[in-house]
Each structure stands twice: as C-alpha cells, then as structure tokens.
Amino acid sequence: MIGRLNHIAIAVPDLAAAAARYRDTLGAVVRPPQDEPNHGVTVVFVELDNTKVELLHPLGNDSPIRAFLDRNPSGGIHHLCYEVDDILAARDRLTAQGARVLGDGTPKIGAHGKPVLFLHPKDFDGCLVELEQV
Ligand code: CO
Asked: Where do the domains of the chain lie, and which CATH numbers do they carry?
C-alpha cells in the first residue's frame, strides 16, 4: 500500500545552523526557509535525488513540534512520510487493522498542498508516520 518515502522530517532547535550543515557540510541542495502558519512550523526543504529532508522549527506559541523539542532539545527525527495513492482507502485499511489515526481521521492539506494523515507512533514502533496522497 505505501509507496515512496516522500520525506523525513527532523525537528531542529536552530534552523539556520541546521540548513548550513546540510548545505555546507553535507553538500546538499537546500531551499530557503518557508513559514507554514497553518502547521505551526518553519520548514527548510533539503532536496535529495530520491527523497527530501524537511528541517522543522516551531513557528508560534502552540506549534505542534514545541513539545517534541522540549523533550529532545538537540533535535531529532520527528516523522517519516510515505506516499499513498488513495488516502481514504489507506485510512480505512489501517483503522480496520487497529492502527490509530491522529485527530478526527479527516485528511488535512499538508505542507505540499496535498492531503495528509498522521498515524499514532505507538502503533508504528515509536515513529510518527505521515501518509501523503500523491
Ligand atoms: Co511531513
């Protein structure tokens, strides 16, 4: 059911320093920061040949990644995003198998303008999983 790895999201305490590390130390193509007020994050996209890395930094006071950074002050992998063809079919299959979808189960429009859902990390080996319909 899941297809390609769309991105790996890493929460970072210092966005400029993290972007510089990927650009200068790792030699990757790094895009300028983008504020995503609807998601409470500022994002820097790192473009790789086969996937993307998204460096996430809190934007605003009730950012959903603030608590994660409080628990992981030096940053850490926040979620993995897999592509699916049909997000509602994927949701129904997952919930039928006992996986928990976060929120009310209705897909939201994600940072790339496509419908997304998040799956409970306790159901996926401690890793928050995002599904994105492509
Ligand atoms: Co994501």
From this structure: 5-133 (3.10.180.10)
Q: 15 or 39: whose pLDDT is higher? A: 15
> If you average pLDDT over every residue of the chain, what do you get?
96
CB count in 10 Å sphere of residue 126: 7
Size of the chain in residues: 134
pTM: 0.93
Q: Among residues 36, 47, 54, 130, which one is catalytic?
A: 130
38-65 pLDDT, tens digit each: 889 999 999 999 999 999 999 998 898 9
Q: Across the chain, where does the E strand assignment appear?
A: 5-11, 29-30, 34-36, 41-47, 52-58, 76-84, 108-109, 115-119, 129-133
Q: Which residues neighbour ligand 1 (ion) by CB within 5 Å?
A: 9, 81, 130
For position 61, what pLDDT does the model report?
85
Distance 74 CA to ligand 1 centre (A): 19
> How many angstroms is it from 7 CA to the middle of ligand 1?
7
Tell me, yes or no, if 130 is annotated catalytic.
yes
